[in-house]
UniProtKB/TrEMBL annotation:
Membrane topology: Multi-pass membrane protein
Pfam families hit by this protein: BPD_transp_2 (PF02653)
Source organism, top-level taxon: Bacteria
Protein name per the record: ABC transporter permease
Origin organism lineage: Bacteria, Pseudomonadati, Pseudomonadota, Alphaproteobacteria, Hyphomicrobiales
Length: 337
């Protein structure tokens, strides 16, 4: 009998690679790869940009991101039910105009806050009814209501922003501090945690998720899918009103286009969030991290002296890359009624 080479014996005794190992590795990369990439971007700016790591600059990033997180979390609720809300930025501008106008003309600031939230909620509710009752695709319905909101904001202000020295109690909502921490950061954390709890720990959140993932199966299971879609869009509008209040208090001004820049950034944050933690699905942790990545990119590029248009190019690339993974979800959200 011929002796076999030692290498063949070693090959026979070596344990075979588990097929689960590769699958787990791919799952980990899919779930956390984007977040790790964001951390690497942070480290690059920390090394390349002067003053990036200072406490003051980090708080600046968080303050800037806080508005984006509020708007993006609202958009996340809508997209969770497979509906798009392209009106939230325009609705926020209108809500800010109403809020700022009331404060500017001497009305009690709590009334102004309630009015802004009501504006957002009414527009969100209208979007939901247009989609579920009138059977208008959310892409079309929310573009129409965005136009209505923008026109109304210009009509109220005649194109001129409300500016003034307003009630300090109102301004504290956007400029105050809690234990040395900017109050905007506190608002951001509280809102994100509350949204995460609702989505993951309540029946309402489960119903929203089920409606977006498999609406027919959800309907057969007894879930009121039309009501869930209305709620998703209504919450997006409500968060637009809330973000408008914080933005107005922070800027001490309100104009008919004050929140317009948040439309593409908000969508990008949610889409980027869909590439991590729960790949292909809207999720609150992903949205928050996506917003932070966008905030870090914007701040870092400014500190490096990059031209303003570079930020727009980077934002567009982020959206394209994110949509490549989430195309089926977005197509369903935009055109399915």
């Amino acid at each position: 009998m011929t002796d076999r080479p030692a290498t063949e014996d070693a090959a026979e005794t070596r344990p075979a690679a588990s097929p689960l190992t590769g699958a787990r590795a791919r799952a980990l990369v899919a779930a956390y790869g984007t977040a790790v990439g964001g951390l690497l971007v942070f480290l690059v700016f920390a090394l390349a940009a002067d003053n990036f790591l200072t406490v003051g600059n980090q708080f600046t990033i968080l303050r800037q991101v806080s508005f984006l997180v509020v708007f993006s979390v609202g958009f996340t609720f809508a997209l969770t039910t497979s509906e798009l809300d392209l009106s939230f930025a325009a609705v926020a501008s209108l809500a800010g105009v109403v809020c700022g106008g009331l404060v500017h003309h001497g009305y009690p600031w709590p009334l102004a806050v309630v009015a802004a939230l009501a504006i957002g909620g009414v527009f969100g509710l209208a979007n939901g009814l247009f989609v579920t009752r009138a059977k208008i695709p959310s892409l079309i319905a929310t573009l129409a209501t965005a136009s209505i909101a923008t026109g109304t904001a210009f009509a109220l202000t005649e194109g001129v922003a409300w500016v003034g020295r307003w009630d300090k109690s109102f301004l504290w909502l956007g400029r105050g501090h809690v234990g040395g921490v900017p109050v905007l950061v506190v608002w951001m954390v509280v809102i994100a945690l509350a949204a995460f709890f609702v989505m993951r720990q309540t029946r309402f959140g489960v119903w929203l998720t089920a409606t977006g993932q498999a609406d027919e199966a959800a309907r057969l299971a007894g879930i009121p899918i039309r009501s869930m879609k209305v709620w998703g869009l209504a919450l997006s509008g409500l968060f637009a009103g809330l973000g408008a209040v914080l933005l107005t208090a922070s800027l001490s001004s309100a104009g008919p286009t004050s929140a317009d820049d948040f439309l593409m950034k908000g969508i990008a944050a949610v889409l980027l969030g869909m590439t991590m933690f729960e790949p292909g699905r809207p999720n609150v942790p992903g949205t928050v991290v996506g917003a932070l990545v966008i905030g870090v990119l914007s701040n870092g590029l400014v500190l490096l002296g990059a031209a303003y248009y570079v930020q727009e190019i980077v934002l567009g690339l982020i959206i394209l890359a994110s949509v490549a993974l989430s195309a089926s979800v977005l197509t369903k959200a935009a055109f399915t009624v």
